[in-house]
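Thread amino acids onto this structure.
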């Protein structure tokens, strides 16, 4: 209220004080005696058009006709008729005289003649745009004549204006009047103000003032003649100066010429109805008109028609006038997508059109629609957004990505569709640099932790590579907590060979983030194992990575000798082949679908010489059995999920994110188990083991020997409970010989290769160790053999002497006697 009063008191400076609009610069041309000026709203600054008409007195004939035009424009509403906003009449002082002025405020438009000059269209594009404009004006005239029984009276180039979206609209309603052929009255507005119509635009019956003939004519007779005048002025590029010029048809397109001649028929009753002009004319059947018409009635089309139309639209848009596409089709398409009437393929057309805009225009006209689409529940829309995110991702601000885009995109990480999970993962290459550290640590890394154990091998592979690519956006504490665990504990032990290769590549690409202690104790030991990988590409990358990390170790050694300790791990180290194209490799392999045969290639290779084995986990009260993986289906989780990536802030995640072990921090390096000592081996040898027929027979060792740990200074064992079972090369459990004193006890001593099959003397052990009360097998152990020793491979247990040859015979006799 106060803002309105302020406008009334202060005025606009150049207009009436009660007009809530600022009047700007005038256009060079306008209809009749009106002045067409630019303007803005005082309230919100939006653009408007202001038409003004002045007279010396309130009884001036032009002002009387102008009041008729204001009344008609206020009451007649149609999409192709100028939209009325406000009107005012004021008495303004002009020096020593007072002038009465009428103001009409409408939507922002400009004269058609000015817009044609601005567009500067030629050839087919000009004809298509003129066809669309004439189509709109014909609809407006048909609405007035056929539906409202009104006569405009002065349809011409000056009575048409153009909106910012390049739509043509009819105005200049000063002479507009009702048409009643049965009335003999002669006081209608058309009769009163016919002198305002230029003589060159008057049909012959109006020039002669033959009102009887006019009343007997159809209501469209006068306006059909005006449409003919408009067509001539459009294609000739000149203002009509006299009626005889209408006979020059050299400018008129051939497809429009028959209708043009019927519009200008000398007999009023034979003139073409504007409604039939729209429906029957071949001229209006072109790509631009049909495309815009389809978009305007999109809600009436079925899904098949929509899908077919939007798939053709990107190529079709290249053939249409560029300015019309950007100012007319693009807003229609954005609105259709935003309100759900357009199909997913429309997004491709929207981005294609948006690529023709400047960055500022794209951010204003296209980006808001895209941001709203991320909240869509339509899976097809979500897929289309993720597939094209590289085209608009750079235009998204960090705040919009973090607050509006990522929360919706993150739903794709847990989607049941593997294809959508892949696209969501791929989109992080664009979105991750714009995320805050809180979102990365508290949300993104937990999602990636789950994807690294996804059932799809391609997703696991690319999750590893994504981590390598976004490592630079993690803070130092997060990198220390996540990278090595993710690349070694998860990736290097994956059953899918490209995933193992990706782990090596990721370690090499992030080499600058590791110190020497991590390289020597946590990275190199895990990579060395892969030098015997069944896959050749993995072995090649492993050797290359080893050379790279060893070069760092040598540089570190040299700097320690010289006393220079201020080195960086990755300084001066050339990257291995393929690291430079790490991002491209990830993108190309996103569509890779792992097969069961490929997924289990490593397992099959190891299983050829690996027997079934059950071991006791020193850090757990439960034992985990490792069955022959070549005979089992591929597990749902290819790598261990006992551990995670980190204790990130769980406040951003809901549901089961707080309970599942998803981070990498839970995969803390375990204490390295000390190799079995000689005493342990001797104690084990004196306890014979009875073979079971089942292939899954298990054996247990005393916990006192299994729970021994290394010294406090030893490095933690990264493999721990999530390690892949070690290669086993003998088909059954064998006796273990004590290691030679000159060699260190290895981690693999308990499952070492069997000794040569030759007669050997058993180890001498103490008698007190022959029977252990804690040994569950002691009660059923066979008596010590007394015959000549035979090869160990033929023995039945681990006694101090080989098995007796008569043991089997006695058992047979006992069985036979029992029967």
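Threaded sequence (819 positions):
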């Amino acid at each position: 209220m106060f803002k309105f009063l302020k406008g009334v008191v202060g005025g606009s400076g150049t207009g009436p004080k009660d007009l809530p609009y600022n009047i700007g610069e005038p256009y060079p041309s306008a209809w009749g005696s009106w002045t067409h000026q630019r303007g803005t709203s005082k309230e919100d600054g939006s653009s408007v058009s202001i038409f003004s008409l002045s007279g010396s007195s309130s009884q001036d004939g032009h002002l009387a006709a102008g009041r008729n035009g204001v009344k008609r424009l206020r009451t007649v509403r149609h999409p192709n008729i100028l939209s009325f906003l406000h009107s005012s009449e004021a008495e303004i002082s002009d020096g020593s005289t007072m002038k009465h002025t009428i103001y009409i405020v409408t939507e922002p438009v400009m004269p058609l003649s000015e817009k044609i000059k601005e567009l500067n269209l030629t050839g087919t594009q000009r004809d298509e745009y003129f066809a669309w404009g004439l189509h709109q004006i014909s609809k407006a005239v048909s609405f007035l004549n056929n539906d409202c029984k009104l006569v405009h009276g002065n349809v011409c180039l000056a009575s048409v204006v153009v909106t910012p979206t390049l739509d043509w609209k009819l105005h200049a309603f000063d002479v507009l009047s009702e048409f009643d052929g049965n009335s003999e009255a002669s006081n209608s507005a058309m009769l009163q103000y016919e002198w305002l119509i230029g003589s060159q635009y008057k049909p012959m019956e109006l020039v002669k003032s033959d009102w009887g003939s006019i009343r007997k004519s159809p209501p469209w007779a006068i306006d059909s003649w005006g449409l003919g005048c408009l067509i001539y002025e459009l294609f000739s590029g000149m203002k009509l100066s006299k009626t005889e010029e209408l006979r020059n048809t050299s400018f008129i397109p051939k497809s429009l010429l028959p209708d043009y001649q019927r519009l200008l028929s000398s007999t009023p009753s034979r003139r073409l109805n504007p409604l039939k002009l729209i429906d029957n004319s071949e001229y209006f059947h072109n790509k631009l008109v049909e495309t815009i018409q389809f978009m305007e009635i999109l809600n009436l089309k079925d899904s098949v028609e929509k899908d077919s139309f939007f798939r053709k639209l990107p190529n079709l848009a290249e053939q249409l006038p560029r300015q019309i596409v950007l100012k007319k089709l693009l807003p229609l398409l954005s609105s259709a997508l935003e309100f759900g009437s357009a199909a997913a393929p429309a997004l491709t057309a929207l981005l294609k059109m948006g690529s023709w805009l400047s960055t500022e225009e794209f951010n204003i006209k296209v980006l808001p629609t895209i941001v709203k689409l991320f909240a869509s529940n339509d899976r097809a829309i979500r897929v289309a957004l993720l597939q094209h995110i590289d085209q608009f991702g750079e235009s998204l601000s960090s705040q919009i990505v973090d607050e509006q885009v990522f929360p919706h995109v993150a739903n794709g990480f847990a989607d049941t569709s593997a294809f959508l999970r892949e696209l969501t993962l791929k989109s992080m290459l664009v979105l991750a640099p714009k995320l805050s550290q809180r979102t990365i640590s508290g949300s993104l890394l937990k999602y990636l932790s789950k994807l690294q154990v996804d059932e799809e091998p391609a997703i696991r592979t690319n999750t590893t590579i994504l981590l390598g690519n976004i490592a630079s956006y993690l803070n130092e504490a997060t990198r220390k907590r996540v990278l090595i665990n993710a690349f070694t504990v998860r990736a290097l032990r994956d059953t899918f060979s490209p995933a193992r290769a990706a782990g090596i590549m990721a370690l090499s690409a992030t080499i600058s983030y590791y110190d020497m202690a991590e390289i020597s104790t946590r990275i190199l030991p895990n990579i060395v194992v892969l030098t015997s990988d069944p896959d050749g590409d993995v072995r090649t990358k492993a050797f290359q990575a080893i050379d790279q990390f060893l070069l760092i170790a040598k540089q570190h050694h040299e700097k320690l000798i010289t006393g220079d300790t201020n080195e960086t791990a990755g300084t001066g180290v050339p990257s291995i082949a393929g690291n430079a194209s790490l991002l491209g490799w990830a993108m190309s392999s996103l569509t890779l679908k792992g097969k069961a045969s490929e997924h289990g290639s490593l397992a099959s290779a190891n299983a050829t010489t690996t027997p079934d084995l059950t071991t006791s986990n020193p850090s757990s009260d439960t034992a985990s059995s490792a069955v022959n993986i070549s005979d089992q289906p591929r597990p749902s989780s290819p790598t261990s999920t006992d551990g995670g990536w980190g204790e990130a802030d769980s406040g951003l995640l809901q549901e089961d994110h707080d309970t599942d072990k998803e981070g990498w921090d839970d995969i803390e390096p375990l204490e390295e188990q000390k190799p079995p000592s000689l005493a342990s081996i001797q104690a084990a040898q004196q306890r014979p083991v009875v073979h079971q027929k089942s292939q899954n027979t298990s054996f247990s060792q005393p916990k006192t020997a299994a729970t021994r740990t290394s010294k406090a200074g030893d490095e933690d064992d990264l493999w721990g409970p999530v390690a892949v079972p070690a290669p086993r090369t003998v088909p059954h459990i064998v006796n273990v010989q004590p290691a030679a004193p000159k060699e260190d006890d290895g981690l693999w001593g308990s499952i070492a290769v069997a000794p040569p099959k030759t007669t050997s003397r058993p180890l001498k052990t103490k008698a007190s160790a022959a029977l252990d009360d804690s040994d569950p097998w002691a009660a059923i152990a066979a008596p010590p053999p007394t015959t000549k020793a035979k090869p160990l491979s033929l023995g039945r247990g681990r006694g101090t002497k080989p098995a007796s040859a008569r043991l089997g015979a006695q058992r047979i006799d006992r069985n036979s006697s029992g029967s």
